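Working notes for the structural subgroup meeting. M.R. asked for a predicted model of this chain before we commit to crystallization trials. I am recording the input and output together here so anyone reviewing the notebook later can reproduce the run.

Input as submitted:
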Amino acid sequence: MVSVGLCVPTTILGQEGQRTLKLEEKITQIFDELREPIYRYLLCLSASPTEADEIIQETFLRLYRHLNAGGREDNLRGWVFRVAHNIGINEFKKRNRLFSIARRETCELEMSTADPQPGPEELLLRREKMASIHAAISTLSEQQRQCLYLRAEGFRYREIAEILEVTISTVAESLRRAIKKLIRESHG
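Returned structure, recorded in token form:
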């Protein structure tokens, strides 16, 4: 999404033009803030990078329509994640895909942050640790993984419940079981 900064007097644009310009600035700001976290989340849901980009584009188009129609503006971060989640799930249902090892590895690569020049030993340790984490996460249910990823993005239980359209107690239980299972897997 690109915003164009025009130096046009307000008398020429009028009120509607000013409202549209402010709306575009707001959406651009939200896009800049949330694009990367949503992209990572969609990769973890098994979207390809291309699919993730398309879902993000559709999500922000819907955000524009929502706000332009006078929709609610409280918790837009949660709204955007919920819409991206729902579009992603619908796309995956259409294609009838499940998580694949290759997609999870892509997710892990995207989510890991590497030092500029790690040594060979550090690279080997990181690979082993990532393989261990990958193995542990792969034992979780899809709902547990989704809750875990959203929690890692900083969402509160209530927000996760809204995004996944489940109860707060379901989110709490899913996270409790996921953490318990990850601890058991890492020590076992």
